[in-house]
Predict the 3D structure of the following.
Amino acid sequence: MSEIDYDDFLRVDIRVGTIVAAEEFPEARKPAYKLRIDFGPEIGEKKTSAQITAHYTPETLLGRQVMGVVNFPPRQIGPVRSEVLTLGVSDEQGGIVLLAPDMKVPNGQRMH
């Protein structure tokens, strides 16, 4: 992987948000959920889909804080217009584990 400089890193706007709605996404090619995430008053709520069904249910996602990239252009994923990239890492079996702060922080706080 090529190196980037600090200015490149600063261009990626990674913020914390709280999942306020989560539902099944049966139209997705791979198992996924449709999410609405509140990124605070400056950014507001963003919609996305996430392939996070291995470790989470819609019920366990509600109220959970997550990290997301909020300055990518929107992408159409089937019938869902994805406005944010929710961040996670793969476990040993390939299931996605969400990245999140380990303490509650205000929605919209930028990663630095």
Remarks:
- The helical segments are 6-11, 40-43, 58-61.
- The two ends are 21 Å apart (CA to CA).
- Residues 15 and 67 are 6 Å apart (CA to CA).
